[in-house]
Design goal:
The protein is α/β, with parallel strands linked by helices. The protein is built from ten helices and nine strands. The relative contact order is 0.13.
Length: 342
């Protein structure tokens, strides 16, 4: 049977039993999807000669997601489970999984099977060819709503313009990262986490793989419009100070406009016989200036809040439970235990 050659970065970690590949999957209310996800991952990796682990991160789900993870772990020791103490958010669940991953390469993907596991072998092949980062780019089908397509493209173009970090439309958190890239990402301690931008920022040789987004296997997405807007705002403000510079320019323009109106009123009073504009125009001008002022103060306050979050140095996630594989003497079966870490 032919053996697929492993790349130069096969040393994943100091652990002697570390796998070649780690697959990190954040899960929030995904109990109905995990069984099928495990089956698809195992089926797609069966023809590939490499050891692997599937790290499922329960992001404080109120349903039976954690119980499903434990059941999968008991049946397959390659499945590892991490349970966060509450819902910290998708990006922080990904970070928790990256922190626990031991593989020479780490793939991150969603649990709803919209990121098809069938693409994993393609990502591994690109990694073998020397790419440190293998991005995936979603090809939108006709079933994707026009609103989602338009807003997604607008956000990524706006983000790329403001931050100077190019991100292609359709590029999400489905990617492969080399161990060297993961190590560099874990060194970054910022609280406003936007992994899509950080992966681009660290650099390294990369390539893109296109894929067709599959339908969600079961359940409904918890990523509503409010979460998407908050995610977009976090990405922009954590990566760019351009909004602050735009606020300065806007403040300068409105000040010039106000100065022009003042000079116009003085000119009418001193050099003409026309009446000075009444309270309506004055009220409109003052309202405009105060409106712009409060917008600028709100924008500055957002960045000050970011500074406050950074200086607090709170942990970005808290783990309440983990599935632990305890090794016993050689020749005996592995004993599986579920340990709780404070």
């Amino acid at each position: 049977m032919p053996v697929r050659a492993m790349p130069r970065s096969c040393h994943s970690s100091n652990a002697p039993d570390a796998p070649v590949l780690s697959i990190v999957v954040p899960a929030y209310r995904e109990a109905a999807n995990l069984e099928r996800l495990h089956e698809e991952v195992a089926r797609c990796l069966a023809p590939i000669w490499c050891t692997w682990e599937l790290i499922l991160v329960d992001d404080g789900s109120p349903d039976t997601t954690w119980e499903s993870i434990i059941e999968l772990h008991e049946r397959d020791s390659r499945v590892r489970g991490i349970r966060l103490s509450r819902n910290f958010g998708h990006q922080y669940a990904l970070l928790a999984g990256l922190s626990a991953a031991r593989g020479a390469a780490v793939i991150t993907m969603d649990a709803d099977l919209q990121h098809p596991p069938a693409v994993i072998p393609v990502l591994i092949d690109e990694w073998h060819r020397g790419s440190k980062i293998v991005h995936t780019v979603r090809r939108d089908s006709l079933e994707v709503s026009w609103r989602k397509r338009v807003t997604s493209r607008m956000f990524y173009r706006l983000f790329s313009f403001l931050s100077g970090v190019p991100i292609a439309p359709g590029m999400a958190d489905f990617r492969l990262l080399d161990r060297q890239v993961v190590t560099e990402l874990l060194k970054l301690k910022e609280s406003g986490l936007f992994l899509r931008g950080l992966v681009q920022w660290v650099g390294y040789r990369s390539t893109n793989v296109e894929y067709d987004c599959a339908k969600r296997f079961a359940g409904k997405t918890s990523y509503d419009l409010r979460r998407m807007l908050r995610f977009a705002w976090t990405g922009i403000t954590s990566f760019s100070i351009v909004p602050l510079r735009m606020a300065t320019v806007l403040g300068l323009l409105t000040s010039l406009f106000a100065f022009y109106e003042l000079m116009s009123a003085v000119y009418v009073k001193l050099f003409t016989h026309h009446a000075i504009p009444g309270w309506a125009s004055l009220y409109g001008l003052v309202s405009l200036l105060f409106g712009v002022l409060f917008i600028l103060l709100g924008m500055i306050g957002e960045y000050i809040a970011r500074i406050l979050e950074e200086v607090r140095e709170r942990p970005r996630f808290v783990i309440s439970d983990e599935t632990v594989r305890e090794h016993v003497q050689v020749g005996e079966f592995d004993k599986v235990a579920h340990a709780t870490s404070g």
